[in-house]
Amino acid sequence: MAKGWLRALQSASRLRDEVEIVGLVDLDPAVAEALTAEFGLGDARIGTDLASMIEATKANMVFDVVVPAARFNVVSTALKLGCDVLSEKPLAATMEEASALLELAEEAGRVHAVVQNRRFISGIRRLRRAVEEGLIGDLSGIHCDFFLGPHFGGFREAMDNVLLLDMAIHTFDAARFVSGKQPLSVYCIETNPSGSWYAHGASANAIFRLSGDAVFTYRGSWCAEGRRTSWESAWRLVGSKGMITWDGEDTFEATVAGEEPGLLRGHRNISIPPAPDEDQTHGHESVLVEFVDAVKTGRRPETASDDNIKSLSMVFGAIESARTGLPVSISSEGH
């Protein structure tokens, strides 16, 4: 993901004169050296200790791309040294660590945001606009299917709760964003199916109760070989007037009730409006632009940590439900 962020920085024309990479920190200096060579960052320092790097370079922003277990130490160090921080997801490895980071960011008066790059794609923005404009009436259901079989190797294949913690959070956050509703409770079954190459939790089925009597269901697997869904999931939104389906890639369909006589009234197609702002549909690049703008202007970023903790609470609520076999309540504050 460090490569993904660096590519996004170099492709974001609005940031070329505003962001300078002054240092790369890695436990293995050779990894950082390879990145500086690949991306032409010859002037950037290389080190293994974040605090020393911040002090040496006088950096004012930290891009955190570490594995989840290292997140708390990295982010807390950066915040305490006066840096604004943009973190990879998840916000933290536990809800307790997430709450502590929110308190640190508030005490330091720094911007602290999380990379939820799936919010910043055209399809999700179009769904959000359609819901806001009441295209299918009052939203009552969001249903997402996610079935892929990636062979990552590395830390993911050794993680507990790998699907829920490392990937499902994207869909959970997007569902909360699209619906504009708050999660209230969850019931989840988590398994590691036969043939899985992951250590734990490669499959999950979750039902969330949302505010406004709405429901969000998620069916997913990261060890599903065969015909895959999109990385963005396959979506079906159900409203009081009709439905929207999106395959997570290029195919949308919005339908409302038709006028056929008999038991079923059939349906008629309606058009879905475009994304409201195409500048916000470039994934990681849009996340970075929005974060830097928030740092410059003092505006609260869309994926600020005190909002993102609500998406994290959906993940840990689902994990707790799977562990206990019982529904779990989710507070409106996310913790």
TrEMBL record:
Domain GFO/IDH/MocA-like oxidoreductase span(s) in chain numbering: 124-244
Molecular functions per Gene Ontology: nucleotide binding
Superkingdom as given in the UniProt entry: Bacteria
Domain (Gfo/Idh/MocA-like oxidoreductase N-terminal) spans 10-114
Task: Report the transmembrane regions from the record.
Answer: none
Offer one Pfam family short name for this entry: GFO_IDH_MocA
Q: What is this protein identified as?
A: Putative dehydrogenase
Specify the species. Rhizobium rosettiformans
